[in-house]
Structure formats: structure tokens, C-alpha cells
Amino acid sequence: TALVREAAGDGIERTVLNASGYVTARRQATVSAKITAKVVEVLVEEGMKVEEGQVLARLDDTNVKTSLRLAEAQLVSATNALAETRVRIKEADQELQRQTGLLKNKIAAQADYDRAEAAHLALKARLDQQQADVTVAQKQVAYWTQQLDDTIIRAPFGGIVTSKNAQP
Length: 168
Prior knowledge:
Layout: E1 2-7, E2 13-19, E3 39-42, E4 49-50, E5 55-59, H1 62-104, H2 110-149, E6 152-154, E7 159-160
Helix pairs in contact: 1-2
């Protein structure tokens, strides 16, 4: 209810506006998690003011962290295998060039050249496969990083908490 009075010059107050009503929020949101998990922490209470992005609650992230660590280890392994193959392909390139020169000068047999070429082609194929493995591992890390972020419930905008419907 609002009551507004105006003071007149003669010392008499006159009522200018008398109104009643209620306040409604311009924006409201029901905040929930993208994933299903056990609530381990709720950091807000009804009536609390929150800022945009503020952490409201946390879900159990134990399994997600384990999966993220596994994906990160797989990425390291795939990256190391790729680095090793790159070294071996350099060696295979050098051997192929050497065998090509020897074959042109009729010093080496065709079979030696064929083996060098096959080894070179096999390593190039392995390199392509390992590059794909690294890409897959990077996407797995990104996926589990997003899953980990989804265990944290944040305020979509600043405002006042009007209802708290979860408990750890």
C-alpha cells in the first residue's frame, strides 16, 4: 500500500494518491541441473541476494572427475604415440630416399626398396590414425570438462532467491 500526501502552503496536508498492490519480479527462473546427481551442497537460502554466475549448489562430481582424469590420460597417451610415429616416419622417409638412390644406381634390390616403401606407407597410415585418436581424445576431455561444469549450478542472473527446493 502506498500513501502520498502533499503539504500545502497553509500547513494542511492533502492526500494525492492512495493505492494498494503487490510487487512482481520482472524476470524469474527455476534453476536446476542439466544432469541427474546427488546434491552435495546448497549455498543459498530463501531471501538471499545472488549475482549472475554465482554458485548456488553443487552436485556430486566424483564419477565425472574420474572420467575426466581418464580422458586426460588417454589424450596424453595418444599425443605421445603420435609424437613417436612422427619420429619414426622421418626415419622411414630417410630410408626410402636412400633405397630410391640405391635402386637408381642399381646397387640395391627392388625388394629392399619395396620394403622401405611399405614401411613408409604403413607409418603414414598409422600417423593418420593416431591424429584421429588425438582428436577423439581431445573431444572426450572437452565432453567430461563440460560434464564437470554441469555439476555446478549457477545463478542465471542477479536477483533474490524466492524458493529453495533442494537439500544436500
